[in-house]
Amino acid sequence: MRLVMTEPAERMDRPYARRWWALLVLCLSLLIIVMANTALTVAAPDMTKDLGLSSADLQWVIDGYTVPYAALMLLLGAIGDKYSRRGALVLGLVVFGGGAVFGYLADSATTVIAARAVMGVGAALIMPATLSLLAATFPRAERAKAITLWTATAGLAIAAGPVVAGALLRDHGWSSTFLINVPIAAVAIVAALVLVPPSKAGHHDRIDYVGGLLSVVWTGALVYMIIEGPHFGWGAKAVGAAVAAGVGLVAFVLWELRHPRPILDVRRFTGRRFAGSNLAVALFFLAVFGAFYYLTQHLQFVLGYDALETGVRMLPLAGAVFVGSALTGWLTPRVGMKWTVGAGMVGGTAALALLTRVDAASTYGDFVAPLIILGLAIGLALSPCTDAIMGAFPESELGVGGAVNDTSLELGGSLGIAILGSLLATSYSDHLSDATAGSKLPASALDTAQDSVGAGYAVAQGIGEKAQQAAAQAQQAGDPQQAAQLKQQAGELAAGARQMADAVGSAFSDAVAHTSLVGAVILGIGTVLVAVLLPRHEAGATEPEAAGKAGEKAEKEPADSAAG
Question: Which positions fall inside the Major facilitator superfamily (MFS) profile domain (predicted)?
Fold first, then answer.
């Protein structure tokens, strides 16, 4: 079989002939990881109604994927480096596909959350494997172009998830959105075994499992705190997670500094190029995930688009990512990553600043320019950052390098949804309270409406249905006086429904504008920090600083790996 005959990537004396086909497999694997989250955003309303999810349930349906995904990447990336990167990819696809089938069969909040957690474990295997296999398969001269296509795929997945999920939701239930991943994962498994060459690290040293477990503790606890605190209050769980994250991080750093071959040489973060690139990735996805979280809600609830229409209207973002990726592939070799990353972050800040103009009268046209600018910014900034992060690691640690990049991405995204999502909810509640002050609407209805924009429109719809019932009773009433009273009641209820719907739309639009302002400030400050950190002159693939010396030594080791 050709599968057995395939030479390991490290032993090839010339570039792998089918490397671009292999890249297609890696991008396909990346596609389903990102789509797993973006597809869920448009399926969430149907899932909430069908399963009777509380706001806490829905939050953990979304984030049950994130905690194992972020926590396990570094350890699983190192295991993939040692034993088999392709094996990690295939195993991850199997686990991910199994979790998707589990999600399709789930019939309660608990089982859906469990299914999402299984998918998160699969994603933690897949994500670092895609980058490490890319870096091992492509020669240095072509690696930046391959990473650019990898990044562009993530942009495509951001918009493709809602489009595909929206198309399914027109004729099928929310559970069908889990099945999107199954045929893609099956194709990717077969294609990986046929087209992706085996690869693993050249050394056979023992894995630093203590460091790996400490990374699981502090990263998992940090993500849990980010989710729990802003959304559910700073009670014992959130505070305990914060303490565990802080203690775990200190223990991890101290252990890694003393270990002769750490799972992650934390001295790399003293390198300006490496540190600046990780900060840029985290900040960008803080902005992107946070903005995507509230933009999809605005399009669905306030502007009234269904799931498919919402997905289609996010496509300008995906198209702009491809254009930005093409531009950065041409610009970065000429002007350096400092300028392209800086331009991208300035563009991202400008996109969020434009969203501060959103109000109750805004139409979809007001969102097109911010979406395009944000997509261009992603394309410009992220590919050079990922290339710089991967370039800071020797060939023997490519899985760890991919895990570091992806952990920065996931921590940024988690912070974006937690911080901007929490701010959005608070701002919406405050604006709705102001908009309905002095109204004759029932206090219980107002309390319910303040929970979320979806709940607000549900309350307005409920009042409207009562108005219709009163009007129907008025027509059937034989007593003219009773009919007049029912008509008056129907009119008051109808006016209350309109008032509630208008107040909800206005409050959420104002909340979007306020949240975007905070996001723009965060990303703007981050832009300055990244500009200070990134060196003006390129330092090469691996920085010749203290952080890179251990990697240079490892890179000289013989690549005597066997097929994985």
Answer: 22-538
User: Is residue 180 within 8 Å of 60, Cβ to Cβ?
Assistant: no
Taking the C-alpha atoms of residue 373 and residue 351, their distance in angstroms, rounded to an integer, is: 6
- Measured CA angle at 403 (ends 399, 409), to 5 deg: 150
Q: What is the DSSP letter of 21?
A: H
What amino acid is encoded at 503 in this protein?
A
Q: Which of 396, 171, 407, 460 is nearest to 269 (CA)?
A: 407
Q: Which fold has domain 1-202?
A: Growth Hormone; Chain: A; (1.20.1250)
Residue 535 and residue 231: Cα distance in Å, rounded?
38
Residue pair 166/309 in contact (Cβ under 8 Å)? The answer is: yes
CA 555 to chain CA centroid, nearest Å: 32
CB count, 10 Å around CB of 477? 15
Chain centre to alpha carbon of residue 228? 17
What are the domain boundaries of the chain? Answer: 1-202, 208-262, 272-435+509-558, 445-506
Instruction: Please check whether residue 103 is in contact with residue 115, taking contact to mean a CB–CB distance below 8 angstroms.
Output: yes
**Under a CB-based contact definition with an 8 Å cutoff, are residues 324 and 372 in contact?**
no
Q: Confidence band (pLDDT; 50, 70, 90) for 34?
A: confident
- Distance separating alpha carbons of residues 205 and 199, to the nearest angstrom: 16
Report residue 302 as tokens.
Answer: 């306030």
Is 544's pLDDT higher than 70? no
Say how far apart CA 112 and CA 116 lie, in whole Å: 6
Nearest to 78, CA basis, from 455, 452, 554: 554
CA distance 438 to 435: 9
Rounded to an integer, what distance in angstroms lies between the CA atom of residue 505 and that of residue 492?
20
Q: How confident is the model at residue 13 (pLDDT cuts 50, 70, 90)?
A: low
Convert the pLDDT of each residue in 440-473 to its tens digit.
Answer: 777 777 788 887 788 788 888 888 888 888 788 8
**Cα-based distances in Å from 107 to 43, 59, 119, 164, 521:** 15, 17, 17, 22, 41
Dist. CA 420–CA 24, nearest whole Å = 34
Query: pLDDT, tens digit, for every residue of 117-136?
Result: 999 999 999 999 999 999 88
**The CATH fold of domain 272-435+509-558:** Growth Hormone; Chain: A; (1.20.1250)
Residue showing tokens 């903005």: 291
Contact criterion met (CB below 8 Å) for 49 and 175: no
CB 557 within 8 A of CB 4: no
Which ranges constitute the DSSP H helices of 138-235? Answer: 140-169, 181-195, 209-232
Are 435 and 101 within 8 A, CB to CB? Answer: no
Residue with tokens 């109204």: 439
DSSP characters for 57-116?
A: HHHHHHHTTHHHHHHHHHHHHHHHHHH-HHHHHHHHHHHHHHHHHHHHH--SHHHHHHHH
CB within 8 A of 285, min separation 6: which ones?
408, 409, 410, 412, 413, 416
The encoded tokens of residue 429 equal 């509640």
